[in-house]
Specification:
Radius of gyration of chain A: 13 Å
Number of strands of chain A: 6
CATH class of the largest domain in chain B: Alpha Beta
Strand order of the largest sheet of chain A: 2-1-3-4-5
Largest interface: A-B, 30 and 20 residues
CATH architecture of the largest domain in chain B: 2-Layer Sandwich
Strand content of chain A: 15-25%
Largest sheet of chain A: 5 strands, parallel
Shape of chain A: globular
Oligomer: heterodimer
CATH superfamily of the largest domain in chain B: GAF domain
CATH class of chain A: Alpha Beta
Distance between the termini of chain A: 15 Å
Order of helices and strands of chain A: EHEHEHEHEEH
Mean pLDDT of chain A: 90
Shape of chain B: elongated
Mean pLDDT of chain B: 79
Strand content of chain B: 25-35%
Structural class of chain B: alpha+beta
Distance between the termini of chain B: 123 Å
CATH architecture of chain A: 3-Layer(aba) Sandwich
Largest sheet of chain B: 5 strands, antiparallel
Strand order of the largest sheet of chain B: 7-6-10-9-8
CATH topology of chain A: Rossmann fold
Amino acid sequence: MTETKNVMIVDDEADVLLSVTQILEANNYRTIKARNGQECLDKLKEEKPDVLLLDIMMPGLTSKEILRAIQKDSRLARMKIIFLTAIHSLEAEEEGLLASKQIVDFIEKPFSVRRMLDAIEKAIEFND
Amino acid sequence: MKASIDGNHSTIYLYLRPPLCIYMNTEEEIFNKLIDAIQDIGDMGATIDEISKVVLIERHTLSKYLNRLRADGRVSYKQIGKAKVWFLSRAPLQSIFCLKEEDKTYTEKIFSRILSDMPEGLLILDFDSNILFMNRYLTTLWGDCIGQKYYHIFSSSSNNGSVKDGSGKDGSGLIMAIIDRKMEEVESRGEDIDGRILDIKARRVENPDNSSSIIAIISDSTEKVGNEKRIKNLSELHRLLGESVNRSYAIDQLCSTILNNLREVIGFDMGDILIYDPDKDVLSSNAQKGYPHQNENSEEWKRRIAMEAINRKEILFFDSSNKGMDKDEIARTAYSLIEEYNLQKMYAIPLKTKGEIHGSLLILFGSRKAMADEDRFLLEGISETIASGIAKIKAEEEWRLKANVLEIFSHPIFMTNIEGRLTYVNSAFLEIWGYDKENEVLGRPWSEFWKDESKDVVTAVCEKGSWKGDLVAMKKDGSGYKTQLSTSLIIGKKGPLQIVAIAEPQEKK
């Protein structure tokens, strides 16, 4: 029997957060929800997800600040990050957001759930 | 008279009460006599001895009366040697500005400061159109024009007080209407001799001697009007740019519309604005105004500078005053162009949006006008609009291209909204289901197109994000058709958007 994997979803849009969470749970993932960067970092003190689905454009902490805090925490070194965002990947690259090795994929909204599930599966394979 | 002693400082304060004016009528008669006397003696002015002989008042008392009149601004004097020569004040208020500070009475000091520091212009005219008074605000605009006819300030081409007025009225002419006693008060906006926009409010006032003057409050609204006009133009430009972006189907069309709007709306005529398309390696020719093809070499230089802004992903700026300071080849090239075209400045701005560069804007500034900061920011803003317009056109082209792939794909592909109503079907879908046109199916619930119970599929897709399985389709003629259906939910910025599906036929058509 395979171990249930943990996925954390960070998005300030309630409907995105709800639907992605429901879909992941229906696909046998354990989920942790956060509505902003600060809530994400607070929950990461207690939790150690295998994959983090992170929206880039959120109020409060910037994506750079969130990434910096994650990189400082050695406990989270194996956690893979997938960006799930409305911004263009070129813009994210220019902002230096894709530099970390923990970032394994960049999914632009709107996205197909099939694409997201494949990306999570690949990210977990990385860890295994 | 009262006196009090401040114990701490041993200072005596004197409170002077003015004497009751029981001789008011007599004094006023004396004042009028003095004024008549000075007038009769002539334009050269009158010494105190000459006045004394006419009015028969001894020098000491006469001096007191004259100083009272001077304090009222009705007479003034000039010191010639040891003698004072007295004149009637043609511009009684103005005289207080001609006096040395130490020669002014206390009232004159206060009054002159108030008038000088007024944030608006104060102009006083007599009914012969002569300027009797102008405060510092106005002398700063026009210099000292006391004694001149007021309409010379407004218009050099006219001697009848014509002022160009944006509202179609004649500001100076309206003042003339007061002089002609046709109006008591006027309010107008006009233009002065130097092209300043002036807001003028004027009215007739009665003087103590029953004569009349005109008092006008004037403010220079040139900057305000300019800003209002600019804001109006910018909002119009903003509207037109939005329209250009929405309505353009080709990049060339977008660029030429935007450049035309820019020129027509804000009158941008300082030089050329060109748009460089890196895919075609061309500079848009419709933008050229003052610097046409002089030689092929110059055109090549322009393209290289425009290309360099794209490569460096930053604005390149060359100012003729810095010529010779830059050593790299592009800078030398730019300064050669500046010299060849007698330019003031040259800008190359990358057309960048969402991290992607779609070309560059090359701006060649002529040497006549200086480029204001706001124009520079405007151009930088416009470059973003052009870039987002180009990105939109490219995205639409890409979507149309991909749509072609969906259209020629042999398997039925369709999309529904979250409620399960069809929003898109491809040609293969229509063919296999037996429909002629997409409007026969769009908007209908997808459950109508399956023989099997398919409502659960929509629920499953929404819950699990995707669903794959066999379903029997129901054709238009009611016959069945076996398919394997693969579906996925599409999630947008705000949540679930659509369901996409591909039906793989499991039997021959």
